[in-house]
Design brief:
Layout (H helix, E strand, L loop, with lengths): L1 H32 L5 H32 L14 H28 L26 H10 L5
């Protein structure tokens, strides 16, 4: 069973990394378009951010079920005596970080997309994204980078 769990974690880690790349791309798109005057572009970005938020949540739930199947149950529960329980916990934390980052991007876009001039009203939308002032990075993506270390067995 431990080999199945290890293999499932490795496979799911690759899926996690794919979703992380999409969230990072969403962040880049946010920084590229958030001050543009084009409402259609910003509305399209808001819709994409919502879809990303939803899809990352679904991927996190799917991961719990895949690991559960590897453990021999259909309820999405990790075998607590497994040597890989810490890997699994870190993967859950990493998915939470991605969900929080995607949620912040969506909420910022949701406030931004209705404005005629977002540059004139940054307080209305920019505070939805929690940034580390020292690094200029999204806090939840920094947390993701911390949690992803040691996930893949």
């Amino acid at each position: 069973m431990e080999l199945r769990i290890r293999d499932a974690l490795r496979s799911e880690y690759d899926v996690l990394e794919t979703w992380a790349a999409k969230v990072y791309a969403g962040e880049a798109e946010y920084h590229r378009l958030c001050l543009t005057a084009s409402k259609p572009q910003r509305r399209e970005a808001a819709e994409a951010a919502y879809n990303l938020f939803h899809d990352v949540q679904v991927a996190g739930v799917a991961m719990t079920y895949e690991i559960g199947y590897a453990c021999g149950n259909s309820g999405g529960f990790m075998w607590s005596a497994s040597r890989y329980i810490k890997n699994y916990a870190r993967m859950n934390d990493a998915y939470k970080d991605l969900v929080y980052a995607a949620a912040e991007l969506y909420h910022a876009w949701d406030a931004n997309r209705w404005l005629d001039d977002p540059a004139a009203n940054t307080d209305a939308w920019a505070n939805h994204v929690t940034m580390n002032q020292a690094t200029g990075q999204m806090v939840h993506l920094e947390d993701y980078e911390i949690h992803r270390v040691g996930i893949r067995p």
